[in-house]
Every structure is written in structure tokens, then in C-alpha cells.
Amino acid sequence: MTTLVAGVLLLLLSVTGIVTAQRDATGDVLRLVSPEAYKFFHQSDDGRVGGSRWAVLIAGSRGYENYRHQADVCHAYQLLRKCGLKDENIVVFMYDDIAYNENNPRPGIIINSPNGSDVYHGVPKDYTGDDVTVNNFFNVILGNKAAITGGSGKVVNSGPNDHIFIFYSDHGASGVLGMPDDSYIYANDLNWVLRKKHASGTYKSLVFYIEACESGSIFDGLLDPKGLNIYATTASNATESSWATYCPGGQPSAPPEYDTCLGDLYSVAWIEDSEAHDPRTETLQQQYQNVKKRATTSHVMQYGDIVLSLDHLSVYFGENTAKYNLQPPTTAINQRDADLVHFWEKYRKAPEGSAKKAEAQKQLVEIMSHRMHIDTSVKLIGNLLFGTEIGPDVLNVVRPAGQPLVDDWKCLKEMVKTFETHCGKLAQYGMKYIRSFANICNAGIQIEHMAEASAQACVGIHADH
Ligand SMILES: *[C@@H]1O[C@H](CO)[C@@H](O)[C@H](O)[C@H]1NC(C)=O
Ligand SMILES: *[C@@H]1O[C@H](CO)[C@@H](O)[C@H](O)[C@H]1NC(C)=O
């Protein structure tokens, strides 16, 4: 036990290393189709909108260590309200376990930056707790009220002239976005929903912002064909982490009483950028460039009908706004390790010898044990399937940009299910191995072989552990 704890501490030191994001001095050249071409296709780009504006805001996590995702979503809600959207046109998904969490130093309040004001007040509780599901999320987008279970029943009841904005914040991995019940939004399903929405003729244009690790993989090679009138940006490309910010000890730091990160770098970058500019004169493309300059620890990406990015923010966010001053954060922490910061801070702050300290230590050890279990079993499965020589390489293969993660999505889902049956939930940390399971599919491995290898690798493990 002592060596494990020592290992945990060593690991913690190495993973909570804080990266200093440098501002990109070179600037970005706008690589766009000509404004003339844009005008040709969009006759009425005078910043005014014919139809209604709709928004879907969704935080995919739960737990105080993930404070920041729900904070991002609440903050986005406040922005849209301030810009003039009505509650009846904003659908919010959040687990809602933060504001009154026992760890929250300011009960009933959520902030999204060190000096930020409360962003929780007034947020509609459309889908909270167990109602935050993939099924409800998809049916809200599709406006399919009959298929909703639980929640407020609010859906995007949009018409052909309407504009839709969707913002997701949480953990992700290759081809998936996380949900609070440890299920996944698979990229192929999400793109199918978007194509279906397009086919129903119930929007004019749709903008999708995603904060998640490897979020580029949600659209790379998948948001096709172009012409769906969808423009998307993601916090990271298909193979890299996205980053948390306003963390304890960061630059600037969360207030001392907070032992969790308050925001995510891409998310606060686009929200604060919107607050700092007039939405009637700033375009989505300008916002993309501004966010890219600030969130330099990853590659902020854009996909789909890039021509739509010549739209003004007001087309999606509304027209009224107050002005703020931008305060770019300078440090960020890898999404996948930001939860450790919380548990580590809790451990560090607890008095020596107290029950609280023992409890915090137990939590840390459990988290690290789960990580080690997942690491070891995936590696072992790779070795069993492909041999120790090439196993690790096969699992880590990254396909070229523009090619989806996997050809057979059904296979991927079955591989994940098979692993989880024998080895337990991947959960937040284990999501990073989705690419390995995709590679197992791409290598033509049959489910039966995967089941055998998983059973062998995780012998003695109960899936409900
Ligand atoms: C927060 O407010 C304090 C005191 O007013 C100030 O010193 C600090 O620079 C502010 N920090 C940020 C990130 O705005
Ligand atoms: C994605 O990000 C990784 C890590 O930062 C980088 O090595 C890779 O070149 C990027 N790929 C693309 C297609 O931008």
C-alpha cells in the first residue's frame, strides 16, 4: 500500500504539470472563400435574422471535479440571455450536482472565472440528473417531443428559416463524447441526427461548438456531404486533448477556496470573446480566429460549411450585449488530468491525521487504481490479440486526417461493450482507449476473439466494480 501511495504522489506530480500557453504572435491568415461568393449564396447577410434563434447547451459530465463543464454551459446560457434569446428557445442539459455540492465553497453559486459573477441563477433545468441522456439530446435536436423521457419536454421546435446553435462541453475521446451516465454519444450517430435534421428542412443554418478531448474526431471526415448548412468548431483536433483553465495554482488561479478548475480554455475563450465584442459586427470566423489565438495548447478546428462563418454572431446569439474586458488566461491543464487536481487539492488541504485526509487519500488511490487497471487490461488485450511485438503499435495507430476513426461503427460499439462486460466501465479516464478499440475493428478482429481476450485480461474483475 505504501508503495502505491508513493506511486500515486509521483504520478500526481508528473500529471498536474501546468503548461504555459503562449499567445500566437504570428496571427492567422483568413483562409476563406471570397465574400462575393458568400453574398451570392446568402443574399440577406445584413446581420438581421428572419426566423427564430434556438440553442441547445449540454454539459456531459457529473461530479465536482468536473465543475468546469457545467460552469461553461451556465455561462453560455447567461450570454445568450443577455443577447436576447428567450428561455423557451434555449434547452439546457446539465447534471446539476455542482451548485449545491458539499464541496462548493459558495453554495448555490457557480462561477466560470476567478472574478466571475454567478452564472447559475436562472438557468432552466430542462434536463438534469438521469434525464441527461443521449436519447433526449438527439430528440431535442430533432424536435421529437414524443420520444423524450423525463425532463421539461422542451425541444428545438424549429422552422425552415430558423438558426440553431449547439454547444457541448465535457470529456471526449476518439469518435465519442461522454455523458453523465457513462454512456457515449458516438460521432456517427450524432452526424446521422444532423443529417436527419437537415432532411426535415427545419433550419436555415446550424452552428455547433464542441469542447472535448479529440473533439475534431466528431466531425473529421464525417460532417459530409458539405451543404448541410452546418458550421462546427472544436476545441482540439482528432488526436489531442482539450484543456481546462482557471485552475488552482494556475495563472490566473481559481480563488483559494476552490479546489477545482472553473472553466475550459476553448469554452471561456469563445464566451468571453462574445462578451467583449458587438455580436452584430463580429463574424463567427473572427471569433474562430480569436479563440485559436487564445487556446494555443490545442489546435482549434473548424469543419462543415465554413462559408457560414461569415455570419455575424448575432445570427445565433442575439443582438444585444454588454461590453466586457478580455482577460486571457495563460495556463491550462489537460482535461483528462483536471479531475486529479480536485482530488489532490482536497487531499493536500485536509488536516494531517484527520478522517478527511484518510478519505481523500482513499479516493486518490481508488482513482489511480482504476487508471492502472484500465491501462494494464487494454495493453494486455492488445498483446493477446496481436502479440507483444506489434500489439502496442496496432492499438495506437492514428489514421490520416480526413478519414473517420473507424469504418464499422457497429463493431466499435460492440468492442466497447465487450470490454466493459469483462473489465468494467471505461468511465471518464478509459475513454481515451476508444481509438484502440476502433483499431481492433479496423484490423478485422471478430467480437468472439475480443471477448476471449477481455475475459482473459480481466479474469477476476467484476464488471460492476
Ligand atoms: C480579480 O480581482 C482582483 C481584486 O480585485 C484583482 O487583483 C485581480 O487581478 C482580478 N483577477 C482577474 C483574473 O481578473
Ligand atoms: C493534431 O494535434 C497533434 C498534437 O498537438 C499534432 O501532433 C498533429 O499534427 C495535429 N494534427 C492535425 C491534423 O492538425
- Taken from the alpha-carbon principal axes, the silhouette is globular
The small molecules bound here are: 2-acetamido-2-deoxy-beta-D-glucopyranose
The pLDDT mean sits at: 87
Helix content: 25-40%
How widely separated are the two ends?
19 Å
Total of domains:
3
- Strands side by side in the biggest sheet: 3-2-4-8-9-12
Note poorly predicted spans: 1-48
Q: Biggest β-sheet: count, sense, barrel?
A: 6 strands, mixed
Protein name: Legumain prodomain domain-containing protein
Active site: 171, 213 (nucleophile)
Organism: Gossypium raimondii
Keywords: Disulfide bond, Glycoprotein, Hydrolase, Protease, Signal, Thiol protease
Notes on the protein architecture:
The chain is α/β, with parallel strands linked by helices and 465 residues long. The protein has 3 domains: 1-18 and 29-41, no CATH class; 52-335, Rossmann fold (3-Layer(aba) Sandwich), CATH 3.40.50; 350-457, Topoisomerase I, Chain A, domain 4 (Orthogonal Bundle), CATH 1.10.132.130. 39% of the residues lie in helices and 11% in strands. The chain is built from 14 helices and 13 strands. It has helices spanning 2-15, 35-41, 67-83, 134-142, 187-199, 265-276, 284-294, 314-317, 335-349, 355-396, 409-423, 427-430, 434-442, 447-457; strands at 19-20, 53-59, 90-93, 163-169, 172-173, 176-178, 184-186, 205-211, 230-234, 243-245, 263-264, 301-304, 331-334. A 6-stranded mixed β-sheet has the order 3-2-4-8-9-12, with helices on both faces. Strands 1-13-10-11 form a 4-stranded antiparallel β-sheet. It has a 3-stranded antiparallel β-sheet with strand order 5-6-7. β5 (172-173) and β6 (176-178) form a beta hairpin. α10 (355-396) packs antiparallel against α14. The longest helix is centred in the C-terminal third of the chain and has 42 residues, at 355-396. The protein is globular. It starts with a helix and ends in an 8-residue tail after the last helix. The protein binds 2-acetamido-2-deoxy-beta-D-glucopyranose (2 copies). Residues 237, 239-240, 299, 401 line the site of one 2-acetamido-2-deoxy-beta-D-glucopyranose (NAG). One 2-acetamido-2-deoxy-beta-D-glucopyranose (NAG) is lined by residues 237, 239-240, 299, 401.
